[in-house]
Structure formats: C-alpha cells, structure tokens
Write a structure and sequence with these properties.
The complex is a heterodimer of chains A (about 500) and B (about 400). Chain A has about 500 residues and is mainly α. Helix content of chain A is about 75%, strand content about 5%. In chain A, a hairpin with a 4-residue loop joins strand 1 (about 55-65) and strand 2 (about 70-75). Chain B has 17 helices and two strands. Chain B has one domain. Chain B starts with 13 loop residues before the first helix and ends with a helix. With about 400 residues, chain B is mainly α. The chains are: A mainly alpha (about 500), B mainly alpha (about 400). The interface of A and B includes residues 437, 438, 446 and 447 of A.
Chain lengths: ~500, ~400
C-alpha cells in the first residue's frame, strides 16, 4: 500500500521518459494523473488509518542489503501521514501551476516525479539508511529544477543549495553511521534503535550529544535555521513558482520531520539537555527571519524569510517536547506547507501578470477593474493565515505550539509570540504597498488572470479555511503518535538514567 | 546690456486656449476619439432617455409621497419587474437622483433663485394644501415644520428640471449617432458643432413644472386640478437654468464619495467651499480606488447594455477584454464630456471664439483662461494621451529608476 507512493511516480517518470513524441501537454497530463492519484490514494489511506493507534500501520518490510543493515522498511504513523497527504496535494498543485509550454518538458516532469517519490520515501522510511537514500534522492532533481528552469542567477542559487544540502546529508549520514556502529544494533531499523536496551539510550550521554549535534546541524541546514539559512532566499528567488511551492511546502519539512523523528525521538536524554539552547535558537530564528522579512523589497524573498521565521516555531515546539507542543509542531508543518504554498503561488501569479515582485514598483493591484482583485483577496487571506488570525489554520497550529511550549520555556515562547506580531508587520507592508493605492499612471493594462492560475490558489485557500474552522480533521491523525512519542521519550530517558546509574555504580 | 523686460507668462494650458480659438475642441481630433465619443454618446443617449422618463415620472406621480417604494417602476409595477429590480437587472435610476441632488445642492442659475422666491413659496403652499386637503395630521405638521414639505417640493422641481434637460440631451445624442451612421460626422469639431447647435436650438426652451392632483373639495366632485409650481411666466429656460447649472454641478463640482467624506474631511482633503469642489465627471479617476473622486460607476454599468457594436468590439480587443469594461467606458465618457464642455464654453463665450477683432480676442482669451484655471487639476491632459489598449507590465525597478 505504501510502496505505491514511491514506485508509481517512478513508473510515471519512466513513461514520460520513454513515450515517443510526447508533447508538453501530454507530459503534464501524465504527471498530473500520477500526482493526483497519489493525493487521492493518501486520502484513502487516511480513511483506512486508525488514528487511535500510535504504532506504525500498513508496514512493509523486505530485507535488502543485510550486510549494510539496509532494509526496505516502510511504515505510516501520525507523523508521516499528514505530510504524505500534504506532499500529494502540493505536488499536484505544482504540476498544475507549471507553464503549459515549458521547455524540456520530459526532463522537467521526470524530475518532479522523482522528487515526489523521494519525499514519500523519506516520510515513510523506517530504516535510517533508507531514509537517507530518499533524502538524497530529491537533492539532484531539485538542483536541476532550479539550475535549468530558474531565474537569472539560477546557477549560483542551485549550486549554493547543492553545497548546503550535501553538507546536511553528510552530517546526517555520519551521525547515522555513528549510531549504528556505537550501539549494538544489527541494522539501521528505527524500531531497534529507539528501543531501550539495544538502542541509543544505552550510549553514554556525551556520545549521544555528539551524535545529536550532527543530526541537529544536518537537519538545521535543511529546515533551515539561522545561521544555516542563507541558501533558502536565493533558492526561492531563483526557482520558478511550482518549485518554490514544493520547496517551501514540502522539502523544508524533511528537515523538521527528520529532527523530530531522529533527534527528539531517538535522543530523549541528550535532547532534554540541549532543549533550552534549542528554544533560544528558535527565538533567534524567529526574530531574525521576521526582521529580515521586514527589510525585504522582493515579495518572494519576504515570503522566504517568513518561512525561516515560521520554522522557528517548530523548533520551539520540539524543544518543549510536550505532547501538546509536538502535536502543534506537526500541525505547524502542515499549516506552513499550505500557507507558504499559497503565498508562493500568489507571488508567482503577481510576477507573471505584472512583471515585477518589487515592493517599490508594484501598487494598486487590488483594483477591482484593472488589477488582480481575486489574487489580492487570496493574498490577504494567506497573510492573515500566516499571521495567526483566528479562523484560519495558522492560528490553530501556532496556538497549540505556544500553549504546549509556554509552561516549559515561558520566556522563549513569549519572544516567539512577538514573531507572530512581526509577521503581521511585514505582511501588512507587503499588502499595503503592492495591493492598495492606485495603479501606476504609466501602467494600467495588466493582463487578466486565467482561471487556471486561480484554481490552485482557491483550493489551498479553502483547505486553509476548513482546517482553521475544523482542525480536528488534522489533529486526530497525529495526536496519539505525538502523545506516544513523549511517553516513549520519557520511558527511554528513565531507562537510560537507570543504565547510567548502574554504569556509575 | 541685457533686456530686463519680462515676457508675459503664458497659461499652462495655453495650447488648449489656442485650440479653442482656432475652432478645435478640448479633445484631440483622432479617428478613434470620434468612434469612442459618438459610440459612448449613443449609449448615453439611450440611458438618459430612461433617466429622463423616470425623473419626470417621479416629479409628476410621486408628488409628496413620503415612502416612494416603487418610484423606479414608472407606474408599471409587476412581480417580475420587482424580481428584476432585486436581481439588479435594471437601469440604475439612483445615478439620476444623485445628479439631481448634486444640482440641488450646488444650486446656481435661475431655478435656484426662483426656488427661494415668495412666488414659489406661495405656489408650493397651494400644492401642499391641495395634496393634503383632508389630512389634518400632515397639515398640522406642516404648520409646525413649514420648511419640510417645501424642501421636498424644491427637490421635485429639480427632478422635473433635470428630466426635461436630459430629454433634450438624449435626443441630441441619438441624433448625433444617426448622423455619424449616415457619414455626416467624421471629426471631433463636428461632434462639438452638433452639440453646440443642439444647445443653441433649445436654449430658450421653457422649463416648467406642474402637477395634477385630485381635488377633494366638497363641490369639486373629485376632479383633478393642476398646480403650476414653475409656470412658464417665471421665464426659466433650458440653457441658462438647467444646462449651465448642470455642467457646473456634475461636470465640475460633483460630490465627494459619501463613504470617504469623513476620512477625507479629517485630513483636510475636502475643500470647505462648495465652489472649490472638483469631484465632477471631468476630474473623476476612471479607476475605482475608493477615493473621494469616484467615477460614475452606476452610469457606466447602465451604458454597458447599450454600447454600439463597433465600440464594444474596440473594448473587447483591449488587454483585459470585458474585465474592465466600466473603466474603458468611463475613459470614453470622459472624452465625450470634454466635447460637451467645449460646446458649452463656445456657446457661453462673450464673442465668437474665432473672432479676429483684437479686443474681442483679448476678452475671449481672458474668458478661456478662466476655464483653463479650472481644468488645471482636471483630466484634460490624460484624456488627450493616446489610449493604450495593449497589455503592459510594470517596469522592473532597475528600469524604473534608470528613467
């Protein structure tokens, strides 16, 4: 059931690659069909998924290279299911939003489907080495998507992305290898490594801290956390709209998901020690991202920096590691995926229709007759959601994160809450400059927006609103898993303390 | 040695003064302008016909009706018409009332003066007595608040006067379109000439207002009695008492957008003197931006239904197609209003504008400078820019700053 998410995109990519005389339209239809089917399949699995069970469900296990400890081991739980659904949705939207007559269409859609496969594998993998394989699988396709179909400085941005993410992969690989070599685990399976006796809990605390550092920095680059964030604004600015949607919506979540699964989940003791530092790091990321966003004049860069700030909330929730904060972190991943996806889509439409993303040039786009009124209205909804206005999904996720974290780290939580206020500041600057006022005297004839450009944004806006009004649709999927993760961490921590006590004795 | 004699400073809109003195119009004479102006005036003529009928209906048949719920139905009330009305599939008669109220508010001309005269007061009182002969409550209230019903009648006088004015203008614009269809109109000066001739022909047409009320007196046997509110003997005429105040109130002054009045007044954006208002059709920004100088959007909405095909086709071929039809109509409408204004300026000039007599030329020049002063903040320069209908993007910042 789960392998479908990995192999169907690869099959689709093969069809696109070898189908003779395939036009851009046909390639897009095949890719849309594949992505749309996967999204529907993810909804079917959500229906079949038992949200009351915290354990892995629908697991698939095939021994692969046993000497390396690599097994084809997939599983679905409350952490991965929302992200799998999000991935299916945003991949479909990204393909839909692609220019109909895009150049090198075969390669483009093959790369997108490769990314879809890699992302699904990353979220489903229950073997550390398998996770890393999929984690790396999306690296080259994304590099090519930026380098070939990007903006003016695409080469620079793509190379920077490649270097940063490659370092991230190396650090994670080193930590994973260290974990297996230092523990007595027979392979890289997550279930074994998280067990009390054979797993990481048996390692000395110093060793755990060293391994955790590699994981934190590795995934910190991917999230990205300040000061490892500099690749993100460049990549976003140079990437085309569909790729920005994928990048902000899903690919950044690989970092947060990895940190939750392999940092918080595997190293509860060490995590407890570094948690205050993590919470402070979250504050720095939130405030730095927000202040950078305020100073931007490029709409896309502003949204990119807002992503950095919003990822900080997730780190705060991880640091607090309460059942509520971890639930909030999963919700924040999904809500940020939806909201940033919508924001990048809308910025893309503005750029396509107006020819500029510059806040000093654009104005009056909310004009009902000659501007982009529907796009402007959706943008207002998106920034409201991002600013945590009640009734929209952003409020729910941020509220749960803060509610779950404030008891553990009150000062850091309060400082992060200032970040939500700053979100309103920079997004109001954006709305005020770009959409209010009068259209320029010398430019009043902007091309009309087609429904094809509006539909994906409307779809995302509807989902953001529905989940804001009825968050239980999402909460129910993850609650048992996040609660279990906290109790497991506590159990493992207790066992670890006993072990260390014995060692000391 | 250099000369210190200063050159006379020419008016910033001297070019337009020269244009008018050489028989040209305020609007440049381009073939597309002719198509736009004639086409839009045709649809305007149709709409004015409907407005005119409704204003006169209200003046005559809704006389001192306190709750005129069905005043826009012209006495033909049916359920299907009510549903159409609620569905907004109708003429926006509210715009006609807006113009009427703007005229009432700004006043000017003989009508305004007459409505403050004792003769009007007396005639209005007779009509009030006739209308509420057996209604002691209203008559009692009228004694307590004598200005209330009188003011209502003043407003009804404006309903009637504007209706009569638009009757003439509607016929004039439809005839212009017919002449264009026959190939008799090919340039903007010809359009202006047609309007000027129309204004002159009807200049002395009397403006009157009388209302027929059921006489409830015991010996009258329920017969109808006609109350003359503005008799012909008052001497009000079409040009000086309706056309000129109309141009002043609607083309020049207008009224600030009600929704923005408070805000704009607080930031001192609304002049304290009514005569300094510049919210009229010649100043309105065709782009609706929620500011105080709003375009006459309801009128544009009404004209959409009566656009001649040749003009509709031009609009359809533009960048946004039908998306911004109202803006395109407003741009054309503004051009046409500059033609009507040109005709008014020519008609009111102290001497023929093409006079070669130096003294007359000087007087004409001073007269035209007075008008041009008022055009300084208008959209005169904008309407004379070539209308771009192709799609345009914002220039990138680098390009923009390089400029």
């Amino acid at each position: 059931m789960l392998s479908v998410f990995i192999w169907i995109p690869l099959l689709g990519a093969t069809i696109i690659g070898f189908w003779p005389e395939l036009t851009a339209k046909q390639a897009r239809q095949v890719a849309s069909l594949v992505a749309g089917s996967l999204f529907i399949w993810s909804l079917v699995l959500a229906r079949l998924f038992n949200p009351d069970l915290p354990d892995l469900q629908m697991s698939e296990f095939i021994p692969w290279i046993e000497t390396l400890g690599l097994n084809y081991y997939l599983g679905l739980d409350g952490l991965s299911l929302p992200l799998i659904i999000l991935s299916g949705l945003l991949t479909t939207i990204a393909i839909w939003s692609t220019e109909a007559n895009i150049s090198r269409h075969r390669l483009y859609y093959i790369l997108i489907l490769f990314i879809a496969s890699g992302i699904a594998g990353t979220f489903l993998a229950q073997n550390l080495l398998l996770f890393l394989l999929f984690y790396e699988l999306e690296l080259i396709p994304l590099y090519l998507l930026i380098a070939i179909w990007g903006g003016e400085k695409r080469g620079y941005a793509a190379t920077k992305f490649l270097i940063y993410t490659a370092i991230s992969g190396i650090l994670i690989l080193a930590s994973f290898l260290g974990i297996v070599f230092l523990t007595s685990a027979p392979n890289f399976d997550l279930a074994i490594l998280s067990s009390g006796s054979l797993g990481i809990a048996a390692l000395p605390l110093k060793t755990q801290l060293i391994l955790l550092t590699g994981i934190v920095i590795g995934f910190g680059i991917k999230i990205p956390l300040v000061p490892f964030h500099t690749w993100l604004p460049d990549a976003h600015v140079e990437a085309s709209t569909p790729i920005s949607v994928l990048l902000a919506g899903i690919l950044l979540k690989l970092g947060t998901y990895g940190l939750l699964r392999f940092g918080v989940g595997l190293f509860p003791d060490a995590w407890n020690i570094v948690a205050p530092w993590m919470a402070s790091w979250a504050v720095v990321s939130v405030l730095y991202g927000a202040f950078c966003a305020i100073s931007q004049t490029d709409m896309k860069k502003m949204v990119a920096y807002s992503s950095i700030a919003h990822m900080g909330y997730i780190l705060l929730a991880f640091a607090a590691a309460t059942s509520l904060s971890l639930l909030g972190s999963v919700m924040q991943m999904v809500s940020h995926g939806l909201i940033s996806g919508l924001l990048f889509l809308l910025v893309g439409v503005v750029y396509k229709k107006s020819g500029s993303r510059d806040l000093n040039v654009l104005r009056g786009l909310l004009n009902p007759e000659r501007g982009l009124p529907l796009i402007g209205s959706l943008m207002i909804l998106a920034v409201m959601a991002s600013s945590g206005i009640p009734g929209l999904v952003g409020f729910i996720s941020e509220f749960i994160v803060f509610r779950g974290s404030i008891a553990v780290f009150p000062v850091q939580t309060l400082l992060c809450m200032i970040g939500t206020g700053l979100t309103s500041v920079y997004f109001l600057i954006l709305i005020n400059r770009v959409f209010f006022g009068r259209l320029s005297d010398w430019v009043v004839n902007l091309p009309p927006v087609q429904w094809r450009d509006r539909i994906p944004a409307i779809a995302l806006a509807i989902i953001i609103t529905i989940l804001g009004i009825q968050p239980s649709l999402m909460i129910n999927l993850s609650e048992s898993t996040t609660t279990a993760l906290v109790s497991l961490s506590a159990t493992v921590a207790k066992a670890s303390q006993t072990n260390q006590f014995k060692i000391l004795k | 040695m250099t000369s210190t004699t200063s050159q006379p400073i020419s008016h910033p809109l001297e070019e337009y003064i020269q244009r008018l003195q050489t028989g040209d119009a305020l609007l440049s004479d381009y073939p597309e302008n002719v198509v736009e102006v004639v086409g839009i005036l045709k649809s305007y003529g149709v709409v004015l016909d409907a407005y005119s009928r409704n204003l006169i209906y209200i003046a005559n048949h809704q006389f001192l009706v306190f709750f005129p719920f069905f005043k826009y139905f012209n006495g033909e009330f049916t359920l299907s018409k009510l549903l159409q009305h609620w569905g907004h599939d109708r003429i926006n008669y509210e715009y006609a009332e807006y113009c009427m109220k703007a005229m009432l508010w700004h006043g000017g001309g003989g009508l305004d003066a007459y409505l403050d005269s004792p003769e009007f007061q007396q005639r209005a009182n007779q009509a009030i007595q006739g209308r509420f002969k057996n209604n002691l409550l209203i008559l009692g209230l009228n004694k307590l608040f004598p200005d209330f019903l009188t003011e209502h009648i003043r407003q009804l006088c404006y309903y009637s006067a504007l209706g009569q004015f638009w009757r003439v203008m509607s016929d004039m614009f439809i005839e212009l379109s017919d002449r264009y269809d026959r190939g008799e109109i090919q340039s903007i000066p010809q359009v202006v000439e047609h309007i000027l001739n129309g204004l002159v022909a009807d200049a002395s047409k009397p403006i009157t207002y009388s209302v027929k009320l059921r006489d409830c007196a015991p010996r009258s046997g329920q017969a109808n009695r006609i109350y003359e509110i503005i008799p012909e003997s008052v001497g009000l005429t079409f040009l000086m008492d309706t056309a000129v105040p109309y141009v002043e109130a609607i083309f020049f002054r207008g009224t600030p957008f009600q929704g923005a009045v408070s805000y704009n007044a607080q930031v001192h954006q609304i002049p304290t003197e009514q005569k300094e208002f510049t919210y009229g059709a010649l100043y309105a920004d065709p782009l609706p931006i929620g500011g105080s100088g709003i375009p006459p959007t309801q009128l544009m909405q009404d004209m959409i239904h009566y656009l001649p095909n040749y003009l509709h086709e031009i609009y359809r071929r533009s960048c946004r197609g039908e998306d911004d039809l109202r803006v395109q109509i407003c741009q054309s409408f503004q051009k046409s209003m500059y033609c009507v204004t040109t005709a008014a300026i020519r008609g009111l000039a102290p001497y023929p504008l093409d006079s070669t007599e130096p003294q007359q030329q000087q007087a004409n020049h001073a007269y035209l400078e007075g008008w041009m002063d008022r055009f300084l903040t208008s959209r005169l320069l904008e309407v004379n820019q070539p209308t771009s209908r192709a799609c345009q993007l914002f220039p990138e910042r680098s390009t923009h700053s390089a400029e």
